[in-house]
Amino acid sequence: MTELKTAVLGFLIIVFIASVTGFFVMWFTDVYDNSILEKLKLTYNSTAAEWWENPPINPLLKVHVFNYTNVDEFFEGKAPKLEVVDLGPYVFLETAGKTNVSFNNDGTITYKEKRSYQFLANQSNGMQFDKVVVPNIPMLTAISNYYDESFYKKMILNTALTGVKAKPFKVLPVDSFLWGYEDELLSLAQKFSFNPEVSFSKFGILMTRNGTSTETFTIYSGENDLKQLAVIKEMDGKSKMEMWTTDECNRVDGTDGSQFPPHLMDKKQTLYVFIKSLCRKFPLQYEKDVILFDGIPAWRYKAPLDVFSHPSINSDNQCFCDLGSASCPSSGLLNATMCSFGAPIYASFPHFYTGDKKLLETVDGLKPQQEKHETFADIHPRLAFPIDGASRFQINVQVKKTAYITGLEHFQDDQILPVIWLEVVPGEISEELRNMIYHSTFSANAIQLSFKYGSLFVCLASLALLTITCYFRTKKISKSILS
Question: How many domains is the chain built from?
Fold first, then answer.
């Protein structure tokens, strides 16, 4: 009988120690969360790596084209400024993936991006063969690039422009303007080698977005350090670009936006997305908690209102001023010329949302609205990847009036013309991914709560039983001594 009581006491001690250990682990460490996050590591042949390589979701690319409606009146001097109509959206289903993937021994992955697009007529407000009047970007690029050239070269360019009957605006089908058409000026430049950097005769405002990327990226898989999961290490073998005026702004950093390191899911932390078409990392800051499909909670992050502001408003943007002249664009604009094959392209939010009011004064028809034109991402607080959101940016072109080159007399110098704006939103989420998100949220939370409060209950219960057992055991020993 004594041996049985001793065994019971020993069992209670073991249960108490185990429950105390479990209580400490569940309440004061991240062991449980880390066991879930381990599955996010992009290890070879893992589910996470397979989904990263071939995402189980197809985003929608919504394109709005600015159609210029009074070009003739403007050039005849009958209209004081140009007018635009926001056409679209023209909706495309994006199929994205990774190609030339290499899992390296140092815990990194090297790859190229690959995208293709399918027009969705039933979701679009317009057809892809709609005719639109849009800025002649090859012409405006050529004139801008000849701004500092000699009188002789400018006259040659002016003759070439006259020869191909180039005008500041072109009438094109939407499909051709977006994905590519044979341009007379580019063909001429290629034929006579006017510009060695021009190795193509086609132009499309989104042409480089379609197909396999020319850039090669290297990211951290998270295998060696989960805190670096999906962070870009290098682009084309380099950790820095040579675009901007400081090392920090030139640094290749952040993720591609499809996944963030879980440890950064802190409402006070800024998340960064590297946008190759802008040659910069883009900040996202926490705004509020939201509830999405199936009651899934998420944290909404938004682009700061001053992300494109003039350095006099946001000093962090000083480094994005022109590298040669140190001139800074107006608030609301980012000079992306060096990322656009030398084309005078400026990025902004749609309809110059958050931009300088003077940007709206040179073109009629723009109506910036926060709800329609802001960029945001709804990110799962545990898994650290977006499950909803909208990435919205506008592409603009600058008119650089150049001496001895005709055709731009009616424009203001350095006038910014809106061209298109893009909205990328998540498409339909696969059932498998939806289930994973659901269970990672509710099932994982239920199990975690069960372990937390279960360990607390067992700890208290075993402590109570130990106390009672020891009390009666001590009382019995005392009686034996007294008798």
Answer: 2
